[in-house]
Write a structure and sequence with these properties.
By secondary structure, the protein is α+β, with helices and mostly antiparallel strands. The chain has one domain. The protein is 18% helix and 27% strand.
Length: 71
Amino acid sequence: MRCALCKSSKLAEFTSEMMIHFSGFKHLAHPGVLVFPKVSVCLDCGSSWFTTPEAELRVLGKGIAVSAAAQ
């Protein structure tokens, strides 16, 4: 696989932890969505990308934080 930006083949994959927050005042009380995607990083240009896991993607698609989705 090659970097989509610079075409380098120097790519590395890392585990990550990411908190995705919904914007706007109505979501201030919600904690957001915790996601643990694998992140691919180009070691030449620094370009990075990840794919959101399916379960978290469904929560994001509903537009509500996890705490609100569980109610």
